[in-house]
Every structure is written in structure tokens, then in C-alpha cells.
Design brief:
This protein is mainly alpha-helical. It has one domain. The chain is 65% helix and 2% strand. Strands 1-2 form a two-stranded antiparallel sheet. The longest helix has 30 residues.
């Protein structure tokens, strides 16, 4: 919205700053951070008032959770999403299709998560929304997003899978690209959701991934950078950096309240929405495979659940003491802060490896 102020510039005044994506990204970051700090306490009080017993805790989980986390309100994702939405609409260009696609994917998965959280809180059960219904609706949203992104992409990139490290290499998937893109978006949403099991565990890796993907979006949206780095040019994606900056600002504000002991949980409202957003950004920037590296922590969390379920059905035994894998380390005796901080470190290392793929060609 504020981009229109650049129209009043003669090229050398303050209004000219609004032409620059980096300036508006900074504005989005600080706006989201300010909003989340300003409204955070009120949102938490409101959630606590309407959730007398808070989020239901798994009885088969670590016993410390039942004692320490009982009564903590959930749906804290609305705080992040509110700051993210306002900041993005304020600072991003309203004529950029990629921004709208990512925003709508975020809101779509937020609605799925909100329904799930609402059912859990009102019925005081960990079951929530039907998993089949969640996946079905998620795939519908992802299909719509995949089609929209394919139409926004240049003709020579539409339906193509870009391979990292290999210079100027594209793999034509044709119509198969759409199921692949859907898998990336839905997989990212549910992987982040599975990771969100300890105070602060999911939000920091999400912010790290958002910062990395935001930098990638900015790079692939500029011809000078893409020519220098020999990566594929995707015009218009640079504006996604504004969205990512707003996500980081809102996420930091949320982390202030989610740091152990958490005053509020993100809930499926936040985790599904933010994961879906990361997946959509990866598809938009043609960096789906790199997303698997940057979000490697989320991939491992999801795989731990899949392996546990399949192995148990086949043998009646468990590979991990408990899945997702962060609970396995809890069972081994690691403290919650140890797990969270060490997983943050892993996320940062993976993000740097993902960024390195831009240069290694």
C-alpha cells in the first residue's frame, strides 16, 4: 500500500525510498514486531479467558508436559498472522501476484488450523479436526496455489523443476509438476505442525527458513544477481521478501511470549499457516528442493513420525521412544531448553547450507 508514495518522488527525496524492496521489508519487519508487542498481552488474555482449560495435553506424552503445560492457551498463531497480514498489506506492492498467492495460502491453512484448535479446545480432546479432511482441504488450497503460481511464472519456467548446484538445469515435469508442488506446500505445512511440540521449538526455525527463503526470493527476482550467480530469474518474486520480513517480525513478537515457560501456544492456527507459507514461497521461487535443505529439521520431524507409525504397524515395536523426534530426546533425558536451542542451531546450519547452493554451481 505504501508503495504508492513512491509516485510522489522526483528521484532524490524521501518518497523514493518506497521504491526499494529492502526499505519496505525493513518497514514490514518493524511494523509486525511493534504490532505483536503492542497487542500480544491483550490477545493472550483474550485467549486465556475463552479457553478455561487451555490446550489439551497428550496423556501418552512426557509427564512433565501434563504438569507444566496444562492450562496454557493455544491459537497464539493469530498474533503472528494478524501482525503479518497488516504489515504485508501495508508495505508490499498490491499489484504483485506472488504476494497475494502466499498470503492466501497462509490464510487458507490458518483456517484449517483454527478449526482444529477450536475443536480441541471446546471438546477438550487432542483429536481435533479429521486428519483426512485437513489433508483434503490442504491439497485443494495447494492445487489452487500451484496453478496460480504456474501462471505467474515465465513460460520457460512453468512446470519446470530447478535443480540446485547444477547450472541452468531444469527438469520438465509437465502436469506432474502440480502434484509435486502440492506435496511441497502441504508437506511443509504439516511438517511445521509436527515440529511445534515444545516452547519456541517451531517458531525460530520458521523464522530462519523465512529469512533464507526471503533472501532467495530477492536474489531470483533480480536479473543482476541471477546472472552473476547463474540461477533462474523469476521476475516479481523479490516482493516476497516483504512478506518474509513481516513474518520474522511477527514471529519475534510471538517468541517473546512463547519462550519457556510459554504464556501461549502457537497452535495449529499458526504452525499450519506458517508452514504452508514457506512451501508456497519455495514453489514461487523455484527452490522446492532447497526448501528441503533449509527446512531439514521439519523434514526429519515428519519422517520420524512416518517411520514410527509404519514400523509399529509392521512389527508392533517402536524405532523411537516417542515421535516426533523431539519427544524422543525428552525421553532420553534432555531438558526442553537443550532440545530447543540445539534444534535452533541445526536449523541455522541447514539454512546456511541452503544459501550456499546459490553460489555453488
Amino acid at each position: 500500500m505504501l508503495y504508492f508514495l513512491s509516485q510522489f518522488s522526483d528521484g532524490g527525496d524521501f518518497f523514493n525510498l518506497f521504491r526499494y524492496i529492502t526499505f519496505r521489508a525493513g518497514g514490514a519487519f518493524f511494523t509486525a514486531l511493534f504490532l505483536s508487542f503492542l497487542f500480544g498481552p491483550a490477545v493472550i488474555r483474550k485467549l486465556a479467558k475463552h479457553q478455561k482449560k487451555g490446550q489439551p495435553i497428550r496423556e501418552d506424552g512426557p509427564q512433565s508436559h501434563i504438569i507444566e503445560k496444562a492450562g496454557t492457551p493455544t491459537m497464539g498463531g493469530v498474533l503472528i498472522l494478524g501482525a503479518l497480514l497488516v504489515s504485508t498489506l501495508l508495505w508490499a506492492r498490491s499489484d504483485n501476484g506472488y504476494v497475494w498467492v502466499v498470503l492466501l495460502v497462509t490464510l487458507g491453512f490458518a483456517i484449517i488450523g483454527f478449526i482444529d484448535d477450536y475443536l480441541k479446545v471446546t471438546k477438550q480432546t487432542v483429536a481435533g479436526f479429521s486428519s483426512k479432511a485437513r489433508l483434503l482441504i490442504g491439497f485443494v488450497i495447494a492445487l489452487a496455489a500451484s496453478i496460480a503460481i504456474a501462471r505467474l511464472h515465465p513460460a520457460d519456467l512453468s512446470g519446470q523443476l530447478a535443480l540446485p548446484v547444477f547450472k541452468d538445469t531444469l527438469w520438465s515435469l509437465g502436469l506432474l509438476y502440480f502434484p509435486f508442488a502440492m506435496f511441497v506446500i502441504v508437506g511443509a505445512a504439516n511438517s511445521v505442525n509436527l515440529t511445534d511440540g515444545l516452547d519456541g521449538l517451531a517458531i525460530m526455525p520458521v523464522m530462519i527458513a523465512a529469512g533464507t527463503l526471503g533472501a532467495i526470493a530477492y536474489v531470483v527476482g533480480r536479473t543482476d544477481f541471477t546472472e552473476y550467480l547463474d540461477v533462474h530469474y523469476v521476475p516479481g518474486t523479490g516482493e516476497i521478501l516483504v512478506f518474509c520480513a513481516a513474518l520474522i517480525g511477527g514471529g519475534l513478537g510471538f517468541l517473546w511470549h512463547n519462550a519457556p515457560p510459554a504464556a501461549v501456544f502457537m497452535g495449529d492456527t499458526g504452525s499450519l499457516a506458517l508452514g504452508g507459507a514457506l512451501g508456497a514461497i519455495a514453489v514461487a521461487t523455484k527452490h522446492e528442493i532447497v526448501m528441503g535443505i533449509v527446512g531439514g529439521l521439519f523434514v526429519v520431524e515428519a519422517l520420524s513420525v512416518i517411520i514410527q507409525v509404519l514400523y509399529y504397524k509392521r512389527t508392533g515395536k517402536r524405532v523411537f521412544l516417542m515421535a516426533p523426534i523431539h519427544h524422543h530426546f525428552e525421553k532420553l533425558g534432555w531438558s526442553e531448553p537443550q532440545i530447543v536451542i540445539r534444534f535452533w542451531i541445526i536449523s541455522l546450519v541447514l539454512a546456511l547450507i541452503g544459501l550456499a547452493t546459490l553460489k555453488i554451481r
